[in-house]
What we know:
Layout (H helix, E strand, L loop, with lengths): L1 H14 L5 E8 L9 H16 L2 H12 L3 E8 L2 H5 L8 H14 L3 E8 L6 H15 L4 E9 L3 E3 H17 L11 E5 L20 E7 L2 H9 L6 H30 L3 E5 L12 H8 L9 H17 L19 H9 L4 H7 L7 E7 L4 H18 L3 E8 L7 E3 L6 E3 L9 H5 L3 E2 L9
Parallel strand pairs: 1-2, 2-3, 3-4, 4-6, 7-8, 9-10
Antiparallel strand pairs: 1-7, 4-5, 5-13, 6-10, 11-12
Helix pairs in contact: 2-5, 3-9, 5-6, 6-7, 7-14, 8-9, 8-10, 9-11
Amino acid sequence: xxxxxxILETIRMIEKEKLDIRTVxxxxxxxxxxxxxxERARERIYHKITSLAGDLVAVAEKIEEELGIPIINxxxxxxxxxxxxxxxxxxxxxxxxxxxxxAAKAVxxxxxxxxxxxxxxxxxxxxxxxxxxxxxxxxxxERVCASINVxxxxxxxxxxxxxxxxQRILDVAxxxxxxxxxxxxxxxxxxxxxxxxxxxxGAYHGIAEGxxxxxxxxxxxxxxxxxxxxxRGEPMDVVARVIKETAFKITRAGQLVGEEVxxxxxxxxxxxxxxxxxxxxxxxxxxxxxxxxxxxxxxxHGTTAALALLNDAVKKGGIMASNHVGGLSGAFIPxxxxxxxxxxxxxxxxxxxxxxxxxxxxxxxxxxxxxxxxTRAATIAAMIADEAAIGVINNKTTAVRIIPAQGKSTGDxxxxxxxxxxxxxxxxxxxxxxxxxxRGGRIPAPVHSFKN
Length: 452
């Protein structure tokens, strides 16, 4: 009887509450593909990706059919390309991005992450080439995602890299102007990035990882909202308990899928990422969970506290359901990918500054936010610096995925389509951060980083 109840509950969560596995991501090490001849290195990269991930999509789709659990995305993450391409004599890494794109198309995944560089403490020749290649690389590819890590709790914040990325984001926006500056939706600037994150656009395969691994990201905002609807008016202790119990069930489904994909492909299972990832569809929103907890509109006073409760309870419930958790693990608050967030912005309840405050207690940061196309590079760099400071001081992952929508002003709409959704262009502070950014250098690591 208990087993039948569990089966019926899972069916309800899938059919009515939008439970899904948001992504099965194969991480692949490309360290052995490095070569002083860039063309030879790219041949090795293409061969390794297509050899290891050739059956990923087919296997995931077969498991999806057998278990009846939707697997929305099948993805690949690779070693940061600046580490691999650095062995070559190439002065532009756009060709490496095109190779990644071709390999992703060949195996049928929707995104491939890892056009990345780790510059939290310094910028090497290959790091600089990769950052300079970002505009062309993201404009000339369809499925490639890029990330740059500019700070860690241990190293502080590299403000020279922050300044460069403020300009590069504008360059990418301009290069993809005809597509609503969509290139910026595939570019993330991190502090404390992690090498086992299965979610795009920030996924890459960390150097501490093995040759290949399967990481899984679950979702299910709709399931948690539906569970909370049944305890309206109950104390916060009850809210936290219900979220934990529901997160446990969601994570168990993801663990089952991950282990099965791992077994069939013969590739080790890595981690479960417990993040709640919303979509633009009605009924699949993190903002609506916060409103169910008691807020009239997401963004009003109390939003940060409600989000802190949600984030903590999801982690507590998920940890009990999986042997290995990792990635980002929390509640995402991307504006364009969450219909409740979009509605809150349009009502004037959710502002840029409130979103920044919310990132102190959730994962990951200022995510999928459209801003006016004429925003200055120094202003964008200062946004990155603020978000990196939150991550570095609090020893957590934070990130910025900002879209300066070229030709758009505050209040206009930008449309990306699919899971990337649509977003109102949000107002930013008009006052200058130019002198602050132009100082450069490195913001020292906080004192609590010194633990050796």
